[in-house]
Amino acid sequence: MSYYRYHVFFCTNQREDGSACCQNFNARETRNYAKDRIKTLGLAGKGGVRINIAGCMDRCSQGPIIAVYPEGIWYTYVDNDDIDEIIEEHLVNGRIVERLVI
Amino acid sequence: MSYYRYHVFFCTNQREDGSACCQNFNARETRNYAKDRIKTLGLAGKGGVRINIAGCMDRCSQGPIIAVYPEGIWYTYVDNDDIDEIIEEHLVNGRIVERLVI
Question: Facing residues of B44 across strands?
Fold first, then answer.
């Protein structure tokens, strides 16, 4: 059993040279939104969900991206509605949100 | 098949209040060492190994820590010799280094 049922990594990397990076899409703010939602839903902690900051995961051109482990499912997102859908479908109900998979 | 065969996350979080955190053990420098080793070994990239920076993974008292996905194996380490052993045993040969598992 994994320490976290779902360990979610948001790339929040900011490049300084203007090239593609997830923080250009305010990834850190979106991560904070997701973290707050998980806490509100009572899903945070060991055996539950961890919403983590990560550095560059080297899929910059497909960003903004998140990785969900241990499944190894990668998503992109446009806004908090997409995050809500990933939380509700995947992290609560265990169903992959195919339309957002990269 | 996971995008990376092994996606390794080093907590490099620095707390400012003096409490336990992985960066107190120079985690960022150790992560850079591991990343360089993986590159030198020709293991970096899609289908291979990614050595990633991560924020706090909330196992601070057991730090410094790394998480290896998709397995969900967590390690601590003392020095670069431990990192070399994790790379050689786990990331090259697929054998868990039990003595460093947390």
Answer: B49
CA-based nearest residue in chain A for residue B28: A55
Interchain contact A94–B (C-beta under 8 A): no
Q: Give dist(CA B2, CA A85) in Å, integer.
A: 22
B5-59 pLDDT tens trace: 999 999 999 999 888 899 999 999 999 999 999 999 999 999 999 999 999 999 9
Between A17 and B75, whose confidence is greater? B75
What residues does B53 pair with on adjacent strands? B10
Give the residue ranges of DSSP H helices in chain B.
27-40, 80-85
pTM, two decimals, is 0.96
Q: Supply the DSSP string of A47-95, one letter for each residue.
A: TSEEEEEE---S-GGG-SEEEEETTTEEEE-SSHHHHHHIIIIIIIT--
Give A-chain residues touching B67 at CB under 8 angstroms: 3, 7
Nearest-5° angle of CA B34, CA B30, CA B79? 105
Look up the ipTM and state it. 0.95
- Residue B102: closest C-alpha in chain A: A3
